[in-house]
Amino acid sequence: MATAATASATAATRFTLLAGAGLRSRASRLSTAVRFQRQRGLTTTALLKTADLRPKEQGQPETLDYRVFLVDGGGRKVSPWHDVPLRAGDGVFHFIVEIPKESSAKMEVATDEAFTPIKQDTKKGNLRYYPYNINWNYGLFPQTWEDPTSANSDVEGAFGDNDPVDVVEIGERRANVGDVLRVKPLAALAMIDEGELDWKIVAISLDDPKASLVNDVDDVEKHFPGTLTAIRDWFRDYKIPDGKPANRFGLGNKPTSKEYALKVIQETNESWEKLVKRNIPAGELSLA
Prior knowledge:
InterPro entries: Pyrophosphatase (IPR008162), Pyrophosphatase_sf (IPR036649). With 288 residues, the protein is of the alpha+beta class.
């Protein structure tokens, strides 16, 4: 009887050890898969609660070391470029604020750093500023990318600028660096910056009092008269004080319809998917 019990116990122990090893092996495989997918910006997106996201500062503003990371509800860093989902449902998109309206520090996502935090741009080791304040909240659509290897036949054959798509949010509230807003696109401007295509999507936050009144490019002119011209002129001229030529705009120098803007968003989202799946060489871009 004792021998049978011992044998049974031994068998049970072996089963437990084997099962534990199997579970550890499976857990290891899952962990590896998660790490692999996280590097491609896929897994976190599926689980992310955008309402819990918040900016977290590191360092002092207006210094070379200053960074604004995006963290989730558990305090874990996520990439504002790769991990925040582009679409919020019902024709609404997530927008990451890099530069609050009425400010001049040239903040941007560090596309070559892990977790792509927001930092102040530099030139020759010096912090960059616009020559005057930008009058709208400015930032990017996550999970988009303007492919520098792809020529756009609609816009003079210009190639993408190797960055996420830029967004100009025209609402009345001044947002903060790192805010994640829900917006609806209204129009697009095809800026050509030193030969590179640099789309500007005009959008409005759903929280704005006038959001329900504007649904396409013509509504912008009706309820925000002069704004589209002001946006175009601001981005056309901001480099002139530094002795550089004015930027140009394709598509007849005019803003597009909402339908065309949505086409731009879709195409650049597809380019981003190719990038993170490594169908296109990433170069120095961080996919983590």
